[in-house]
């Protein structure tokens, strides 16, 4: 093997885009178009203040859950229960800390320990989801739907349906800190996107996730431990969602029993608009990031342009449909049905 | 007088330059069970396709008796076919499967009662009661086979074509199936029985037709044939009594039985029992040796190869690489221990279609091509891929192209490259040239030969004569046990007899002596 003669240098690559890159960049012109439309409709739209403090900050929590869901989708599965972890994780943490007079447990656990505990709980939930879909081969849709309902119920149960507020400073930090004048929410979002994108694109673990979602049998016969990897992916998704939950709680300085409710639909929309395939193995974190940006901009434009609030949901849904159709036309077609066993 | 059920006259068919059927004549009487035999490439599949209306013959006439006893030109549905691969819908009942798409109706709705009764009646004829309302997924293999047969006969065909009907059935179930086929013959059902298992043919068939090179070369009642006469009819005239087998592509065999004598053993299979009721298999592959492993479908050679590759566990026994036992069922550990593998079907577990050519080729060694930060180094990947692609002569426009865009031959080379990426000492290949063209085949063979000459041990599990001709010796399995060791230079007849489980273990000494006497 080692004695094989190397091919005399690889051909210099012409500057042309591979289909994958073309698909990734498909949303960029749409985002630019949305920016132009926004500028025309509202004078306050194209300002640093609006773009940073409204568009990006409002997109950060959604964006982190989208990153989590994208990794799970690329691995060939999906997880509806992420939105309930966005509610449960901060609820558990805050409940452990607060005195019973404020609706907490009265255990008086230090904030840092409570935060560690809520991540641990989330990891366990992810591991259970992963075990159920791999070991018992249950369908991910129904498993995570049941988990979603269960966790939503636990969140309501812990809090007695109340909103917990008067949070310790450690919780507020994630919402109010502004390093270098920019909200920490944006920092966290951007760092998560960059790190996860780099991992998925170039780290062996990320490439194994793509292989897993692209053809599980081929991944297994290449020596990839598919069961372990799947469980790890679910745990990772749950941990990121817990982080998103803590960020949301920090921003609104309280935790409600229905925090995160309905978020998962927007999460799927952003991921799919961003080119993540529901069949697994396709799409990039950068694409998903573009999907989040586009939805954030559209949401912002709808708010600024004083569309009657009763109609916002309808228009939002219409825009998502249009984005999907555009995406299809731009070449992000669903994969060919390859023959499977 | 019994009239005929099928009459095939002077049927010919060619695909491009390949003459699949030259001149086939075949007449089967009503109620007869006729074996249709021939080696791979003899024209069997083409004839089956012509019988079932799948292809139009270039010349000749095929007539089949229809529901009302009249001879008509064969077309879609005039023969009931049961193929090796199941076509049942597991989530529907046996009755629904039998009438799938042809439901009896009443007022435009499916007449459930009629369907149930008719299905039950058909199944009863084949010896099963209370099967029609059970879900197919809950049935035994034999029951499923009978449901397939009933579905094939639903709508009235009087002729049934069975293609390898005992595949997936154990010995007991096969016997029961034979009894049922005999019962059907008594009811006047005509059967065309296609199988590689000659033992079954003697058990169940009345008569035999052997195809070779697109012609019917021998036909007659089963009593006129012996095992040996069928094998020699299938093999055809031998040029020179003990002449070397030729690869069909015309290249002489390249195996050499003495090439690895004195080398150390790399793969050791120690008394492996594939499942609870199979006998122990032992074999060794030396450094740089090319060993073929073959047998009929279900003989266990594929399973044994998959076990060595770490894909499946076995009931008992061990596999060692360089004297160290493998943990069976753990592919990653097999790769670390120096085993590379080319899986049976590249579409199922060989390739990730959406990933690039270079990424597929290096999927087994992602952890070995890291850069300083632990990320996959694109440069190292490209360097490794360049080595692999030149040793396998992979033709792709660009290493970053999706592997699904390549031709079948090049895709297979990517799977071979993937197996080789981990720089294995032992390479297990299952049907390594399945579905590739002749040019790609030759290119794969020359790479394999070069590889073994540099010291890699090859175990090639295949039913393809060309694949086996590359090997220094061929180990033949039958029914889960090794039945013969054939050193290179075996004749076609020796190989064909051995895969039928009929030959005694090849007398090594005799062959060696024979060779020596030739030299003198």
What is the strand arrangement across the widest sheet of chain B? 6-9-10-3-11-12
In DSSP terms (H or I, runs of 4 or more residues), the helix count of chain B works out at 17
Counting copies of identical and different chains, the oligomeric state is heterodimer
What's the pLDDT, averaged over the residues of chain B? 83
Secondary-structure class of chain A: mainly alpha
Which regions of chain A have little confidence, pLDDT < 50, spanning 5+ residues? 1-16, 332-341
Strand content of chain A: under 5%
Low-confidence stretches of chain B: 239-252, 504-520
Shape of chain A: globular
In terms of structural class, how would the helical and strand content of chain B be classed?
Answer: alpha/beta
Number of domains of chain B: 3
At CATH level 3, the topology of the largest domain in chain B is Rossmann fold
Residue-averaged pLDDT of chain A = 85
Strand and helix order of chain A: HHHHHHHHHHHHHH
Give the beta-strand count of chain A.
Answer: 0
- The tally of beta strands of chain B, per DSSP, is 22
Give the class-level CATH name of the largest domain in chain B: Alpha Beta
* Span between termini of chain A: 32 Å
Cα-to-Cα separation, first versus last residue of chain B: 62 Å
The number of helices of chain A is: 14
In brief:
The complex is a heterodimer of chains A (341) and B (520). Chain A is mostly helical and 341 residues long.
Key phrases:
heterodimer, A: 341 residues, mainly alpha, 14 helices, 0% strand, B: alpha/beta, Rossmann fold, 6-stranded mixed beta sheet, 17 helices, globular, disordered C terminus
């Amino acid at each position: 093997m080692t004695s094989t003669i190397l091919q005399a240098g690889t051909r210099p690559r012409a500057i042309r885009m591979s289909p994958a890159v073309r698909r990734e960049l498909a949303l960029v012109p749409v985002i630019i178009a949305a920016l132009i439309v926004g500028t025309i409709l509202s004078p306050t739209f194209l300002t640093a203040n609006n773009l940073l403090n409204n568009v990006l900050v409002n997109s950060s929590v959604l964006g982190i859950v989208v990153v989590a869901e994208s990794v799970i989708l690329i691995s060939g599965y999906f997880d509806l229960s992420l939105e309930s972890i966005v509610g449960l994780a901060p609820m558990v943490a805050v409940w452990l800390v607060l005195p019973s007079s404020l609706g907490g447990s009265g255990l008086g656990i230090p904030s840092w320990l409570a935060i560690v505990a809520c991540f641990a709980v989330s990891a366990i939930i992810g591991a259970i989801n992963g075990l159920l879909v791999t070991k018992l081969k249950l369908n991910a849709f129904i498993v995570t739907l049941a988990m979603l309902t269960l966790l939503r119920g636990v969140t309501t149960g812990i809090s007695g349906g109340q909103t917990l507020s008067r949070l310790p400073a450690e919780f507020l930090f994630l919402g109010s800190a502004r390093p270098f004048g920019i909200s920490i929410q944006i920092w966290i979002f951007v760092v998560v996107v960059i790190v996860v994108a780099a991992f998925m694109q170039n780290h062996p673990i990320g490439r194994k996730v793509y292989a897993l979602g692209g053809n599980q049998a081929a991944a297994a016969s290449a020596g990839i431990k598919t069961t372990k990897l799947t469980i790890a992916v679910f745990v990772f998704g749950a941990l990121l969602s817990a982080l998103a939950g803590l960020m949301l709680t920090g921003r609104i300085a309280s935790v409600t029993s229905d925090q995160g409710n309905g978020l998962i639909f927007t999460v799927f929309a952003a991921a799919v608009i961003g080119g993540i395939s529901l069949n697994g193995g396709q799409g990039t974190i950068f694409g998903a990031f573009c999907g989040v940006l586009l939805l954030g901009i559209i949401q912002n434009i709808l708010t600024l342009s004083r569309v009657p609030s009763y109609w916002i949901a309808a228009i939002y849904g219409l825009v998502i449909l249009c984005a999907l159709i555009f995406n299809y036309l731009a070449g992000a077609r669903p994969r060919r049905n390859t023959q499977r066993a | 007088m019994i009239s005929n059920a099928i009459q095939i006259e002077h049927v010919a068919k060619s695909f491009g330059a390949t003459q699949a059927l030259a001149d086939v004549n075949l007449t089967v009487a009503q109620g007869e069970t006729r074996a249709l035999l021939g080696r791979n490439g003899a024209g069997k599949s083409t004839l089956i396709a012509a019988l079932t209306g799948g292809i139009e013959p270039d010349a000749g006439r095929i007539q089949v008796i229809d529901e009302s006893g009249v001879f008509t030109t064969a077309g879609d549905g005039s023969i009931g076919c049961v193929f090796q691969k199941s076509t049942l819908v597991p989530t529907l009942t046996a009755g629904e499967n039998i009438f799938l798409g042809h439901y009896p109706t009443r007022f435009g709705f499916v007449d459930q009662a009629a369907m149930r009764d008719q299905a039950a009646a058909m199944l009863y004829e084949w010896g099963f009661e209370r099967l029609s309302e059970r879900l197919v997924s809950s049935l035994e293999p034999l029951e499923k086979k009978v449901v397939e047969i009933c579905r094939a006969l639903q709508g009235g065909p009087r002729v049934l074509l069975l293609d390898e009907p005992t595949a997936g059935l154990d010995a007991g179930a096969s016997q029961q199936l034979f009894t049922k086929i005999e019962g059907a013959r008594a009811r006047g059902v005509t059967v065309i029985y296609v199988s590689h298992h000659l033992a079954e043919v003697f058990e169940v068939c009345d008569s035999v037709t052997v195809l070779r090179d697109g012609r019917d070369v021998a036909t007659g009642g089963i009593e006129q044939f012996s095992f040996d006469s069928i094998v020699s009819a299938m093999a055809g005239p031998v040029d020179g009594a003990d002449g070397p087998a030729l690869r069909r592509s015309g290249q002489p065999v390249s195996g050499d039985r003495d090439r690895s004598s004195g080398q150390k053993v790399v793969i050791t299979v120690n008394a492996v029992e594939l499942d609870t009721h199979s006998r122990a298999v032992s074999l060794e592959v030396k450094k740089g040796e090319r060993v073929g492993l073959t047998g009929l479908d279900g003989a266990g050679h594929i399973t044994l190869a998959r076990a060595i590759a770490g894909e499946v566990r076995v009931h008992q026994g061990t596999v060692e690489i360089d004297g160290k036992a493998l943990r069976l069922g753990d592919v990653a550990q097999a790769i670390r221990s120096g085993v590379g593998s080319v899986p049976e079907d590249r579409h199922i577990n060989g390739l990730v279609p959406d990933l690039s050519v270079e990424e597929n080729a290096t999927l087994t060694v992602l952890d070995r091509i890291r850069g300083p930060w632990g990320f996959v180094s694109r440069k190292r990947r490209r360097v490794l891929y360049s080595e692999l692609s030149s040793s396998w002569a992979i033709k792709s426009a660009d290493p970053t192209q999706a592997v699904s865009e390549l031709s079948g031959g090049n895709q297979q080379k990517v799977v071979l490259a993937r197996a080789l990426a981990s720089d294995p000492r032992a390479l297990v290949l299952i049907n390594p040239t399945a579905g590739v063209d002749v040019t790609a085949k030759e290119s794969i063979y020359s790479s394999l030969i070069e590889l073994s000459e540099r010291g890699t041990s090859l175990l090639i599990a295949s039913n393809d004569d060309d694949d086996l001709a590359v090997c220094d010796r061929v180990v033949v399995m039958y029914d889960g046990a090794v039945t013969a060791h054939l050193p290179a230079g075996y004749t076609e007849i020796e190989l064909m007899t051995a895969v039928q489980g009929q030959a005694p273990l090849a007398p090594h000494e005799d062959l060696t002596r024979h060779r020596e006497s030739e030299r003198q």
